[in-house]
Transcription initiation factor TFIID subunit 4-like (Sinocyclocheilus grahami), 178 residues
Amino acid sequence: VNFISHATQSRLRTVLEKVSSIAQHRMDSCKEDEWHEPSSDVRSQLKFFEQLERMEKQRKDEREREILLRAAKSRSRQEDPEQARLKQKAKEMQQQELAQMRQREANLTALAAIGPRKKRKVDSPGATTTGTEAGLQANSALYNRQRITRVNLRDFIFYMEQERETSRSLLLYRALLK
């Protein structure tokens, strides 16, 4: 029983170490590496396209707004239903813009009344510490907390694909189906 217990413990330890290193490699960012040269930055490309779409939408809204304002200002004698609809839409748009401006002003006023947001500093230079607090801080500096590595199913699947014993196991195929 002792041998089986020791073998199981040893096997679990090696599996957890390997899966933990896989998860750490997954979390590592290679952007700071001097040898890393990005071929394409998809995130910045997506941001650029989103910005283009916003600009196009803004231009379209401005054109529509100008058309509506022209229609609202025109004072033609014949009142056709299209002209009346445009005038009504222009009035609604102006009321909506006015409501948005009021809401924005109310929010700014409320934020000004609350005051600036201050972050509480834990180790500020002006803070005084008692003897026991200083001892606890020195004690915690000595014993560094171990980093918690979050391992997910993909990490286990990757590990099982790399290991000779589990690369064709039923457990791997079941995990791939999830």
